[in-house]
Specification:
The strands form 2 sheets. This protein has a 10-stranded mixed sheet with strand order 3-6-5-4-12-8-9-10-11-7, with helices on one face. It has a two-stranded antiparallel sheet with strand order 1-2. It starts with a helix and ends with a strand. It has a single domain, classed as L,D-transpeptidase catalytic domain-like. A hairpin with a 2-residue loop joins strand 5 and strand 6. About 25% of the residues are buried. About 20% of the residues lie in helices and about 25% in strands. The chain is built from 5 helices and 12 strands. This is L,D-transpeptidase. Belongs to the YkuD family.
């Protein structure tokens, strides 16, 4: 009896090992280390439509990256993302406290970039300090010398086309009074309350002359030609119904500080 008790456990173990020998659990699977097998088991499976030979399918050529975005086109011609506002323009055209008035910020994103203040290459025979107005392109240049000029966008009214030639900025005025001419009063009777007989319009944010005015003389006579600011920023770069040479208020303040006394001006 004791012998049987010893034999049966050993026989059971032998039978169990023999029955599991087909599973090779005791033999290492060396094929798992084969690179070929690894590639076969991990290679991606692609969808192959019936009747299509993948060997005869031509690859799609790389598409060029677009250089501009028509949806959000900016002066920087960005390729990706939303338009970025130039921080320099934000500083130049932000809210400005001047004398007793506060000029509101100008929405520069709604002004054509070429009409914003910028230093440009400008070859001219005019002396530094001269103001040149190109009525056709609607630009005003302040000649700096060394082939450079500060360029401003301007709007031109009917009177802005009425005179051309050479003159002198005889007089400059901060926050000027506006006195419409007799011709303007005859064309627009609604401005009669601001005529010379009534003392003109007081300075202010809604004054048509804006924050500054520069008065042009020739041979000692007033040409009635003016460079002035305007609260109507949307008129810059355009032809308007009245006025002379309009500038953004922040720009006319900048130009006023640059122009020397008795500066020469050329209008063409």
């Amino acid at each position: 009896m004791n012998f049987l008790r010893r034999v049966f456990p050993i026989a059971g173990l032998v039978i169990a090992v023999a029955s599991l020998s087909g599973c090779n659990i005791l033999i290492p699977d060396v094929a798992a280390d084969s690179p070929a097998r690894f590639v076969q088991e991990t290679s991606p499976v692609f969808y192959q439509p019936p009747g299509v030979d993948p060997r005869r399918v031509r690859p799609i050529p790389d598409q060029p990256v677009p250089q501009t975005r028509e949806l959000y086109k900016t002066q920087f011609h960005q390729t990706y993302g939303l338009p970025v506002t130039n921080p320099v323009h934000m500083a130049m055209y932000g809210q400005l406290r001047d004398e007793d008035f506060t000029l509101p910020a100008i929405p520069v994103s709604r002004v054509q970039p070429q009409f914003l203040r910028q230093e440009v290459d400008y070859q001219t025979v005019e002396r530094p300090g001269t103001v040149v107005i190109d009525t056709k392109a609607r630009f005003l240049y302040f000649v700096e010398g060394n082939g450079k000029a500060m360029r401003y966008g301007v709007g031109l009214g009917r009177d802005g086309y009425a005179w051309s030639g050479r003159g002198v900025i005889q007089w400059k005025q901060k926050w000027p009074r506006w006195t419409p001419s007799v011709e303007m009063v005859s064309r627009q009777p609604e401005v009669r309350p601001f005529g010379a007989e009534n003392g003109g319009m007081n300075p202010g944010l809604m004054n048509p002359l804006g924050a500054r005015a520069m008065y042009i003389f020739k041979d000692g006579q007033d040409t009635l030609y003016r460079i002035h600011g305007t609260p109507d920023w949307q008129s810059i770069g355009k032809a308007t119904s009245s006025g002379c040479v309009r500038m953004l208020n922040q720009d006319v303040v900048d130009l006023y500080d640059r122009v020397p006394a008795k500066a020469e001006i050329v209008v063409m």
